[in-house]
Design brief:
By secondary structure, the protein is an alpha+beta fold. The chain has two helices and ten strands, in the order H-E-E-E-E-E-H-E-E-E-E-E. It is 16% helix and 43% strand.
């Protein structure tokens, strides 16, 4: 019995020594990954992107609206909202401010206007000096912090991380000095862009 007791004590001591050695020895390996900056901008196709002029005043039958979905993984992302319309010189900036109100110019696709016609519309010239160009007011930009930059003729928009929606609403009342009988019938277009790059 004495021998069994000593044997058990010896086995127990060896077990405790082994357990102690195992508990005192450890190591770790730190895994690290880098997640890059991610910004994704997509148009949401449900807004009103097409409208008709209802009468001789140049007013639209319904206001226009556009919506962009922005997904970002950084605390603040600065974006730029701009508009471009086609002239004989190619696409040119079509967003401008007049009398404290921001407007978007639309140009004729059936008879493309000159650059000077677009410029005349932006600077408030008489309608006869801006054939093929009409303009409508930007009523609101919401869903994110924004401010119009007169020097760049575009909005600076700031979104937070996660998913945000930037909504742009264009009013139905035409800029008076931009619509006249010399604006040929047909389609008029302006391309609205929300971009990460200040282009």
């Amino acid at each position: 019995m004495y021998r069994i007791k000593n044997l058990l004590c010896t086995v127990f001591a060896i077990f405790m020594t082994t357990l102690g050695a195992m508990a005192g020895s450890s190591a770790t390996a730190d895994f690290q990954i880098t997640i890059p900056k991610y910004v994704n901008i997509q148009p949401v196709t449900s807004p009103v992107l097409t409208a008709n002029i209802t009468d001789h005043t140049g007013s639209l039958h319904a206001p226009l609206s556009a919506r962009f979905q922005v997904t970002s993984n950084i605390p603040e992302t600065k974006l730029y909202l701009s508009a471009n319309a086609v002239t004989e010189s190619g696409y040119e900036p079509a967003m401008f401010s007049q009398g404290g109100q921001v407007y978007i110019a639309f140009t004729s696709l059936s008879k493309v206007p000159t650059s000077s016609s677009l410029l005349n519309c932006k600077t408030g010239a008489l309608p006869k000096d801006s054939p093929g160009v009409v303009a409508y007011p930007v009523i609101s930009v919401n869903g994110a912090d924004n401010a119009y930059d007169n020097s760049k003729n575009k909005y600076e928009v700031t979104v937070n991380n996660g998913v945000s929606y930037v909504n742009v609403h264009v009013g139905s009342h035409v800029l008076k000095n931009s619509f006249a009988s010399n604006d040929r019938k047909g389609f008029y277009q302006s391309v609205l862009s929300l971009t990460e790059a200040d282009i």
